[in-house]
Specification:
The complex is a heterodimer of chains A (314) and B (432). By secondary structure, chain A is mainly alpha-helical. Chain A has helices at residues 2-6, 12-19, 22-56, 75-82, 84-117, 122-134, 137-148, 155-158, 172-201, 204-212, 217-228, 230-245, 249-254, 264-274, 278-303, 307-313, and strands at residues 59-60, 70-71. The longest helix of chain A is centred in the first third of the chain and has 35 residues, at 22-56. By secondary structure, chain B is α/β, with parallel strands linked by helices. Chain B contains 17 helices and twelve strands. The chains are: A mainly alpha (314), B alpha/beta (432).
């Protein structure tokens, strides 16, 4: 695999095939055979449900009236895409995604720096930063719901400018803030882990050189550290953005979608699980899948990062 | 590089072993019933009245089968989805289930409930069963469940408050009278108006009280006729708006539920409240408050003067899973756990009112409740107004909630908006 590391540009694949020796060809064939069972299993467990969802999405189909199932073509998609509720929840989901990922990126980076630079009690500090990530999201949702509760929570008590009876879940702004706090608290450690990996790759020599040249700490951060970990940041943002777009647990636990805090996942859940509307629900889950693809594509475009390059460095 | 990898795989192996152990033990538990040679009937219950239900399960077990209680989650939505998931997968271990009446048409239409036939049907729904309760278990002319207990709402109030307002306890009261009486005397009116099922219960009761109904021809499923934008619907909207604007509205009106207004009945300051609420209220206050003697009860308020109110109907019906391996035994067991004796125990021990008229005359019940209250419960259930019986009820309910909530936004065009939204939802043209 060393040959791929030196191949710098995107045309490397074609050149590689031309230069491949018999031995590496045989190795590649063996490799393909070895991954075949895994691919077959993947197809079975992921492709089947996806195809099934696409199939179901063209029917008007309620679980409680199985005999009334009728083929409606693209009607479910038209219904979803023309319904203001769908766009409201999409907007809300994007809002959650942008805010949480941005906040997590900043806090996560600070944590990563701490974990990277800390010289004493390294294990303890690293572990304590990572603890929230080990907690199940539903548990974190309940914990924060109790924390924000106006009857037995501590948040109102601690915030001097708030009345103790303030109901965080009574209106959109505060409810969505509470959900985002829980989400950020829970997933920032993941972000900082990914960033820590990137930070570890920034060569000390370059930092030394910059220091010798008289660069300030701030300049070293912006001119040396961040550009050199761009692909790590990209991976972190990509993973977290996709996760955040599919947010469900915290909303389910904390508001159950009240006050307009619904996400696209939650809307889909309600159609399928609560209303038993398999047709429109499947259409929504297909749309959710497509939007996740679009977001992934956008992030890769924006950061102009070659995924393969990111993989080699990471 | 070697050592962390190894420890990782060791950990993974431990994980697999734990999972395998858990799987084995759950399989063992599932099989243990068969070892004794006796069948096990699973009865999925909601958490109300567990102690008595456990006793009923014991009493109704026979030499052929044991009834085992399985507990469902507390929220009605979760109960429904859990049962539906099992039944949609044709689960043969779902034998008996406690069903909220509004789920019965949905489940029956999907073919998930084994209907009671012949003599069994006559036994489950005979003349003794109160009309409001009997109506909840009928679907397409078949008896698809057995009424176990019935719930209804009455108007609970402070006698001193009603007296101060000059309300005549001999006459039926209207919503207008109640709201005005509370407002003029510093009292409040307790209702359930959070965005959840009980808000639909309230709206439905008021529409029916005005002689209307939310939908006609509900057995037609998606093609049912929506009749909310009518005079009756307008009356309901008017009353909700009136309460929301009135000083009699409670501070938490928009998030109120069955529990929130209980504390307002005997507050430290103020004259108390009028509250529409289910039958459990009596036992809730009995022996708990000093001024218990001041607690009064009356029939559910009338929507329009001169027309009898149609109190809400709730309760629990016992359904038998269509895929049960022991269908006959399960139906036998269903008859047993809904017998007059069983109903009497539920009423006395748990405050869950009987669906059979004769049980109201039993001595145990007369000891536990005042005679006039029993009479009121019985009449309310007999004359109750059920919610629409439709295979699409959960969609109907959500659609109504989303337009009518919050109560302080209800106005004269709410019924019209509600009707067109519900039509679109039933046609699959709108999301919920």
């Amino acid at each position: 695999m060393t040959s791929t590391v030196v191949a710098p540009d995107s045309k490397k694949d074609r050149r590689k095939t031309a230069q491949m020796s018999d031995r590496s060809k045989a190795e590649e064939r063996l490799g393909q055979k070895l991954v075949l069972p895994a691919i077959a299993l993947m197809l079975l467990v992921t492709a089947f449900p996806m195809l099934r969802a696409i199939y179901l999405s063209v029917f008007n189909y309620s679980l409680t009236a199985p005999d009334d199932r009728e083929f409606v073509g693209a009607q479910n998609y038209i219904t979803a895409l023309t319904d203001p509720l769908f766009w409201e929840t999409t907007l809300n989901t994007v809002f959650i995604m942008v805010v949480t990922v941005a906040v997590e990126l900043v806090i996560g980076f600070i944590f990563a720096m701490v974990m990277h630079r800390v010289i004493f009690a390294r294990g303890v500090i690293r572990t304590s930063i990572l603890i929230p990530y080990g907690i199940i999201t539903v548990v974190s949702g309940f914990a924060w719901q109790f924390a924000f509760s106006n009857s037995n929570g501590f948040v109102n008590e601690w915030l001097p400018f708030l009345d103790n009876s303030f109901n965080w879940f009574g209106e959109y702004g505060s409810a969505i803030a509470a959900i985002m706090v829980s989400e950020i608290w829970k997933t920032t450690p993941f972000m900082s882990l990914l960033l820590l990996a990137g930070l570890a790759q920034v060569s000390e020599d370059m930092l030394e050189a910059a220091k010798v040249d008289g660069a300030t700490w701030w300049q070293r951060l912006w001119k040396v550290v961040l550009p050199n970990m761009r692909s790590a940041i990209m991976v972190a943002v990509l993973f977290r953005a996709l996760d955040a777009y599919r947010i469900f647990d915290n909303i389910f636990v904390m508001t159950a979608g009240a006050q307009g805090t619904e996400s696209v996942s939650f809307l889909t859940y309600r159609q399928v699980i609560e209303q038993f509307q398999l047709g429109i629900g499947s259409a929504l889950s297909v749309l959710l899948f497509l939007s996740v693809l679009v977001i992934a594509g956008l992030i890769v475009k924006i950061f102009r990062v070659d995924l393969a390059a990111a993989r080699q460095e990471g | 590089m070697g050592s962390p990898m190894r420890s990782g795989s060791r950990r993974r192996r431990t994980g697999v072993a734990v999972a395998a152990l858990a799987l084995c033990s759950s399989m063992l538990a599932a099989c243990s019933g068969d070892d004794s040679g006796k069948a096990t009937l699973n009865w999925y219950i909601n958490p109300d009245g567990q102690e008595t239900l456990n006793k009923l399960a014991d009493d109704c077990s026979t030499d052929d089968y044991d009834i085992e209680i399985q507990l469902l989650p507390a929220s009605a939505t979760d109960q429904r989805t859990q049962l539906a998931r099992r039944l949609a997968a044709e689960d043969s271990s779902t034998d008996l289930m406690s069903l909220d009446p509004v789920f019965v048409p949905e489940f029956a239409n999907a073919g998930w409930l084994a209907p009671f036939e012949g003599d069994l049907a006559d036994e489950v729904v005979d003349d003794d069963v109160l009309e409001g309760a009997a109506d909840t278990v009928m679907w397409e002319d078949e008896v698809v469940a057995a009424p176990q207990w019935a719930n209804t709402q009455v108007l609970w109030y402070r006698k001193s408050l009603a007296e101060a307002a000059g309300l005549d306890p001999e006459q039926p009261w209207t919503w207008d009278q109640v709201i005005e009486a509370a407002a003029e005397n510093g009292g409040t009116v307790g209702v359930q108006a959070n965005r959840y099922e009980a808000y639909v219960v309230w709206i439905n009761a008021m529409i029916m009280g005005a002689g209307g109904q939310m939908l006609e021809d509900t057995e037609a499923g998606r093609d049912a006729k929506v009749t909310i934008d009518t005079e009756a619907g307008a009356e309901a909207a008017r009353i909700i708006a009136k309460l929301a604007d009135s000083p009699a509205a409670q501070a938490d009106l928009t998030v109120s539920n069955e529990g929130t207004s209980l504390g307002q009945m005997f507050p430290e300051e103020g004259p108390g409240e009028f509250m529409v609420n289910w039958t459990f209220v009596y036992k809730n206050y009995e022996g708990q408050v000093d001024q218990f003697d001041d607690l009064g009860w009356a029939r559910y308020p009338a929507t329009v003067e001169g027309e009898e109110s149609r109190p809400p109907i709730g309760g629990i019906d016992i359904g038998v899973g269509a895929y049960s391996e022991n269908l006959e035994w399960a139906q036998q067991a269903a008859v047993c756990v809904t017998s007059p004796e069983a109903q009497s125990q539920l009423a006395v021990n748990e405050g869950l009112m009987p669906s059979r008229g004769s049980v109201y005359d039993s001595d145990e019940l007369k000891e536990a409740y005042p005679a006039d209250l029993l009479e009121l419960f019985r009449n309310s259930i007999d004359g109750g107004g059920p919610r629409p019986k439709s295979a699409f009820y959960s969609q109907i309910s959500s659609a109504v909630q989303s337009v009518w909530h919050s109560p302080d936004s209800v106005s004269e065009d709410t019924p019209g908006r509600s009707e067109s939204f519900l039509n679109d939802v039933l046609d699959g043209k709108r999301l919920l």
